[in-house]
Structure prediction request, 96 residues.
Amino acid sequence: MIKDGNFGYHEAISTFVITIFIKVFFTSPTMVAKIVGTSGWLMTLVSALSTAFFFTFQYLLLKRFPNMNQMEINDTVLGNKPGRLLTFFFSAYILI
Prediction:
């Protein structure tokens, strides 16, 4: 972690990689069969591709704004209120 308590590239990448691994490897086969039936492999593929897309987007965003955390990037790009709203929704999504 960077000295002043902000997330850096390593922390953000680690968080997304851990999330991707949890999403891909710890999905219960019973729940997959109940939700999508026999096309469970397709659900895993779509989930992995969408996660990879958002991971790439997040990586490029952090690379474009060095030494800024996610909240500061949202405020810079979207403005004060929309940036805080996006940060709130993103945080709620991660917690859920």
The helical segments are 9-25, 29-36, 40-64, 70-78, 80-95.
